[in-house]
Amino acid sequence: MSYTYEYPRPAVATDCVVFGFDGRELQILLIERGNEPYKGYWAFPGGFMNMDESAEQCALRELQEETGLTINMLKQLGAFTDVHRDPRGRVVSIAFYALVRPTEVKGGDDASEARWFAIDDVPRLAFDHDYILRKAMQQMRKDIHFEPIGFELLNKSFTMSELQRLYEAILGVRFDRRNFEKKMLQTGILQIVEDEENDEELFEKLLHTPAYSTKFFGKRKEMQTKEIDELFGADSNKGKTPDSKTLFDPYWNSKSLSAPPAPTKPAFNFLPPEEFKICAEGSVEMPQPRKPGRKGRKFSFNKEKYEHLKQDNNFKLEF
Amino acid sequence: MSYTYEYPRPAVATDCVVFGFDGRELQILLIERGNEPYKGYWAFPGGFMNMDESAEQCALRELQEETGLTINMLKQLGAFTDVHRDPRGRVVSIAFYALVRPTEVKGGDDASEARWFAIDDVPRLAFDHDYILRKAMQQMRKDIHFEPIGFELLNKSFTMSELQRLYEAILGVRFDRRNFEKKMLQTGILQIVEDEENDEELFEKLLHTPAYSTKFFGKRKEMQTKEIDELFGADSNKGKTPDSKTLFDPYWNSKSLSAPPAPTKPAFNFLPPEEFKICAEGSVEMPQPRKPGRKGRKFSFNKEKYEHLKQDNNFKLEF
DNA sequence: ACAAAAGTGTTTGGGATACACCCATGC
DNA sequence: GCATGGGTGTATCCCAAACACTTTTGT
After folding, report:
1. Are the beta carbons of B96 and B14 closer than 8 angstroms?
2. B209: phi then psi, degrees, rounded to nearest 5
3. Least confidently predicted of A93-97, A111-115, B279-283, B307-311
């Protein structure tokens, strides 16, 4: 079977930079290439796009095929189109990044192996993936100023320290504990989790799961997704594939472009509007810090409140 | 002549959202489509990518062909990949945006006509270009917080009012004149320009100008003659077509990813690094405000200073 | 002369920053 | 008990924001 066109066409592929956070440091998900070119090199999961799927759907499918990972949040980095970026010929790659809680992954399909690498310990990558990774880091660091993307990586409830470690890992800086908490609470998107009992119960259960025994979830494989679903509710992660069907619905009209409608008063502190898929919910408890310490209050991300603030261009989180 | 592949491939095209600023309001450049589909509709300039060019080069070429406009700055918006976005079949579009000073444009090639539209008076567009325009506005408003992109739209020297009108047009807000000037000058990326004087005269004059006695220009007294030379050195780096050849040069190493190297002190006010092509140049006089008024001091964009600040992650411009 | 725009500085309030002590927990 | 980390409050400083009169220029 072959396909013929009047003009030459590049192949179109996707690549997916998946960031994970284990409570201590930032990680990325790589696969070891099983085929030429770059056989034996590590690379981002990804592959060629089918004709009946959007780039987003392609990225999610390939991720599933090559690593067994199912996620529901993606952000596009852009297209990488250098003429010589792939030795096989002209290949245009559309790259995405995602933030997830690290779980067990396994190689499959094109990938002979798949595993998490600490961000400080990334090997030399195939193709132009070094460059793509750099772009992904830049983009994520930029996005985090405007969007509460970090909550993708945490459980429904988390301590302020966990949240702080996450921000420090992403931005590569250190914050003062008290000031960080103040700033976070001032945004208004956090709720205190009152239900101590439920939380304790959850904690107890998790303490006895194998997942807690290793640093990098190495033994997570013993804990099947099914079990987790049983524990915490099966619909937490259900097939929320980003649907590009709505892409060019005419929900835009020219009036909304000139918004906000010129205020008469000077208006500093304006923040631009933004769209970002926030898909809450997960099921795997995050590793606790290894050192003993006082047990912290738990917080949760108030999505409704955030949506409301965003609507009014009133959300701001500057570091 | 035809081209045959083992698997089906989408066509890859580019679209270019060109913003212009005439001193009063923001405009965009559109072409009237001369062929089906969407014949007679207005759309962004763009077209199909050749096999020996990057997407950037394609966008620039198509822009030249369809509107006669030659620019040297582009920023990628991303790939638009909805399966049904083009009635001709599967077409992936890589969109860019650009900021230019509006000049005469003419239709050509596929375009039966090309002209500027005020941003508040944009007609219904072909394909998913309404959606792309919305994304471009969002992106530009976001970018302007981190990059001095606006200077692309102004002449080499400009008054503070012109700059302010530009920012107000892009962000859709109004600023207080004095606070805007203060904030802009504090960034350190602006220089004072005075056209008619030669260097020595200028230096003498500047030292005795009332402006120099004030808080913000006080340090200028230390200004070296050399700096003033640079000020008039009309550094036009022309013809800098974005070159994607350098794309995956191995200038990245894993160490730079974990940067900045964990400071011991808390570091608020961190801004992420960013890359953006700043290409100065220009000869088209900008329309002056219609109303009579006092003649304003002129400023120019100090590119070297900006690059330096950017290198240290020290540039910040928040509105 | 008048209208429109440009030049100039001060005050104030709020938020970012820096900072220290006590308490809870696990070992 | 001791090491580790959680919980809490305050003083300071700097910058964003609000604000008004004078000067220049074109008509």
Report:
1. yes
2. -75, 140
3. B279-283
Q: Is B290's pLDDT higher than 80?
A: no
| Catalytic entry in B25, B65, B113, B194 | B113
DSSP string, B258-298: G-S---SS---S--------------PPPPPPSS--PPPPE
CA distance linking residue B193 with residue B205, whole number of Å: 12
Sort A143 into a burial class: Cβ within 10 Å, 0-12 / 13-18 / 19+.
buried
* pLDDT surpassing 90 at residue B255: no
Q: What is the per-residue pLDDT for A193?
A: 79
Q: Are strands B157-159 and A42-43 parallel, antiparallel or unpaired?
A: unpaired
Q: Do B8 and A137 touch (CB under 8 A)?
A: no
Q: Residue A199 CB: number of other CB atoms within 10 A?
A: 14
Mutation target for B interface from A24, A56, A77, A81: give the one with most B CBs within 10 A. A81
Contacts B164 to A, Cβ<8 Å: none
Are B17 and B136 in contact, with CB atoms under 8 Å apart?
Answer: yes
Query: What pTM was computed for the model?
Result: 0.73
Residue type, B28: I
CB contact under 8 A, A257 and B174: no
d(CA B106, CA B113): 6
A186 touches chain B (CB under 8 A): no
Nearest C-alpha neighbor of A115 from the set A28, A24, A241? A28
- d(C-alpha B150, C-alpha B23), whole Å: 12
Residue A267 has pLDDT above 70, yes or no: no
Closest CA to B16 of B67, B85, B90, B86: B67
Distance CA A78, CA A298 (A): 36
Burial pattern A151-190, b for ≥16 Cβ within 10 A else e, equals: bbbbbbbbbbbbbbbbbbbbbbbbbeeeebbebbeebebb
pLDDT tens for residues A85-122? 999 999 999 999 999 887 766 666 666 788 899 998 89
Contact B31, A35 (CB under 8 A): no
B3 to chain A, any CB pair closer than 8 A? The answer is: yes
Q: Which amino acid is at A78?
A: G
* Tokens coding B173: 């807000």
DSSP codes of every residue in A40-94: T-EE-SEEEPPTTS-HHHHHHHHHHHHH----S--EEEEEE--TTS-TTS-EEEE
Chain B residues in contact with A244 (beta carbon < 8 A): 81-83
- Residue matched to tokens 């918004």: A259
Smallest Cβ–Cβ distance between A319 and the set B6, B265, B268 belongs to B268
As a whole-number percent, the residues of chain B with pLDDT over 90 amount to 30
pLDDT of A230 > 50? The answer is no
